[in-house]
Design the sequence.
């Protein structure tokens, strides 16, 4: 069966520090991968999605970047965090864009 | 930007009552999906309806889709306290590759 791992669960980082969030999927190949951000009590904002290794589509220009160095690995990064980067970050995978997506448990990032 | 907008933003009902949530979207879609999120957790897929379908059932869930009005509704019958959660619609956009875009969500509270 397929599983998705996202870590860490919580993270407190100072302004100006770097960020690296990792997401891995097991039990499937060539998944579509997604990074979302959710502000408190709000909907999900699509940040990046990827249909294959090295293929990244950015939805919102911002202080973040994403990479897919391996088929089932999706990394969200920042060189210098801003206060506005705080939020709940969710990784998800889908066989394609026309079927259900499976979510990780999320990372709650607080930038102080 | 958000593709979908859920209505109402918040809904409070008594156990045993039915809950209806609506979703409106902007562009042509391949499918529309509904997800549930318990507080501080990842999302769980509930049901998917394709653009050529008008109604779908799954247990106590009933979803309708009106592509002419670009809207969908989710009905939860005989609600239970355990149904308390946030509910989101998501759309797979026609011609949008594999992008999966979420709405703003409805917070449902079912009281005993």
Sequence:
């Amino acid at each position: 069966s397929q599983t998705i791992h996202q870590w860490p669960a919580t993270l407190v980082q100072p302004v100006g520090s770097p960020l690296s969030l990792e997401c891995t999927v097991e039990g499937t190949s060539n998944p579509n991968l997604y990074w979302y951000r959710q502000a408190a009590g709000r909907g999900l904002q699509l940040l990046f999605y990827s249909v294959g290794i090295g293929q990244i589509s950015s939805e919102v220009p911002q202080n973040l970047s994403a990479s897919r160095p391996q088929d089932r690995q999706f990394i969200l990064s920042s060189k210098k965090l801003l206060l506005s980067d705080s939020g709940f970050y969710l990784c998800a995978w889908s066989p394609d864009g026309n079927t259900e997506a499976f979510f990780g448990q999320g990372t709650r990032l607080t930038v102080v | 930007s958000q593709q979908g907008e859920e209505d109402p933003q918040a809904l409070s009902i008594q156990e045993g009552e039915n809950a209806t949530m609506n979703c409106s979207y902007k562009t042509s879609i391949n499918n529309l999906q509904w997800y549930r999120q318990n507080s501080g957790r990842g999302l769980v897929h509930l049901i998917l309806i394709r653009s050529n379908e008008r109604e779908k059932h799954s247990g106590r869930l009933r979803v309708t889709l009106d592509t002419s009005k670009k809207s969908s509704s989710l009905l939860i019958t005989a609600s239970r306290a355990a149904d308390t959660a946030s509910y989101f619609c998501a759309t797979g956009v026609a011609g949008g590759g594999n992008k999966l875009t979420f709405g703003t969500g409805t917070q449902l509270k079912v009281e005993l």
Summary: The two ends of chain B are 36 Å apart (CA to CA).
